Amino acid sequence: ATITSGQIVFPASQNASANTNTLDDYEEGVATPTITFSSSTGSIAYNERSCRYTKIGNRVIMSMMVYPSSMASSSGNILITGLPFTQINETDSRGISSSVYYDRIDTQDNGINVTVTANESQAKVNAPAGSDAGATAERAYANFAGNFFLYCVLHMETDT
């Protein structure tokens, strides 16, 4: 990094440091999230979809929105692909949403969360399941209306 007129400028490509106390990467950018399904993804059209992110060191904060206008002939659990980074590959590591706004998703009135598991660059949409307060179940195609709306802020850790 260089200091120019009171600004810290990081190079376009990370100059990685072995020192864990050295901030060696900062990046802002955009990505295009895509809805897919675990078994079969049919045709999906979008009203809008976007992802803006900030990466500071190994931490990534994303504001992501998907708003399909129609979905047809899909099956399995919903996945949101096209995330800009992969979650770190450590046991029990997980990227998780800190806030979620949604509409027209069958959630049994329990709310939802969005997660990214270890070594993945796709998000899963989950809702509480059963009587165990910690149990979750992935949302399937049948849980979504064709024009649902999902906005979330997602926090994750990466090793790149």
Question: How would you characterize this protein structure?
Answer:
This protein is an all-beta fold and 160 residues long. The protein is 0% helix and 55% strand. Strands 3, 4, 5, 6, 7, 8, 9, 10, 11 and 12 form a 10-stranded antiparallel β-sheet that branches. A two-stranded antiparallel ribbon has the order 1-2. The protein is elongated. The chain starts with a strand and ends with a strand. The mean pLDDT is 86.
Relative strand content: over 45%
Instruction: Please give the largest β-sheet.
Output: 10 strands, antiparallel
Q: Tell me the number of helical segments per DSSP (H or I, 4 or more residues long).
A: 0
Strand-and-helix sequence, N→C? EEEEEEEEEEEE
Structural class: mainly beta
The amount of helix comes to under 10%
Number of beta strands: 12
The end-to-end distance, rounded to whole angstroms, is 17 Å
Regions with pLDDT < 50 over 5+ consecutive residues?
none
As a whole number of angstroms, the C-alpha radius of gyration is 18 Å
Q: Residue-averaged pLDDT, rounded?
A: 86
Q: What is the molecular shape?
A: elongated
